[in-house]
Amino acid sequence: MAKVYIYKQFERFWHWSQAALIFFLALTGFEIHDSFHLFGFEKAVAFHRSASYLLLGLIVLSIFWHFTTGEWKQYIPTFSKLRAQIQYYTVGMFKGAPHPTIKSVRKKLNPLQAVVYLGFKLVMAPMIILSGLLYMFYKSFDVNDMVVALNIPLEWIALVHTLGAFLLMAFAVVHIYMTTTGHTVTTNIKAMITGWEAVANGADNEVHDANMPICDKKELETSKNKNHA
């Protein structure tokens, strides 16, 4: 095993910012649906709208980052070892079986994660975003300028948005649980905080990446110096 710099600075910023915004959107969303009273309806609506704009901005920024760094390739699905990965999560890990795949700098996601995360990005996220925007701007534009929701009933849009939100919450619960299945309960969480993770040795896990941004190279050197101190 070797300690490898897996998650870059922006990657961690994007992950934790997105998580915070999603849970805040869920909190305000449930209040809008009158599940409880915390901020008050009007403030909850205002906070929900503001957080949605922040999340949209973060998504645009992350799309730009993924394509300019080549990290989008992490989400290319593969069926190689997919069945073995499913068997590991459902049976193997409870019997102490070895993990069927090895994490590396160039392959951070196992086959099942790649398929699930790609589905999240291509189906679930657009479902929530588009329904939210349609609800937010429902027939607020003149028909000669822009047709936003056509003749779709507002109730249908709200139903799709709520369904997407519940699916996202289910995804989040499973995701949080899966973070506890590393070498220790906190291994994966610590890796997403520090960027470093203990993985199997191999050429694919070389930490000196020529394409690594300057900010990540500086962080890498700082962390290495601390480890040697």
Fill in the keyword field for this structure.
229 residues, mainly alpha, Fumarate Reductase Cytochrome B subunit, two-stranded antiparallel sheet, 7 helices, 2 strands, 59% helix, 3% strand, metal-binding, electron transport, heme binding, Ni-dep_Hydgase_cyt-B, Di-haem_cyt_TM
Apparent shape = elongated
Distance between the termini: 21 Å
Give the second-level CATH assignment, the architecture: Up-down Bundle
Major β-sheet strand ordering: 1-2
Residue runs with pLDDT of under 50 for 5 or more positions = 206-214
Structural class: mainly alpha
Task: Return the CATH topology.
Answer: Fumarate Reductase Cytochrome B subunit
Q: Kindly give the count of domains.
A: 1
Radius of gyration: 21 Å
Strand portion: under 5%
Biggest sheet: strands, sense, closure?
A: 2 strands, antiparallel
Helix and strand element order: EHHHHHHEH
Outline the structure in words:
The protein has 229 residues and is mostly helical. It has a single domain, classed as Fumarate Reductase Cytochrome B subunit (Up-down Bundle). The protein has seven helices and two strands. It has helices at residues 9-32, 41-69, 82-90, 111-136, 154-178, 187-194, 214-228; strands spanning 2-5, 196-199. α1 packs antiparallel against α2 (41-69) and α4 packs antiparallel against α5 (154-178).
Précis, in short:
The protein is mainly alpha-helical. Helix content is 59%, strand content 3%.
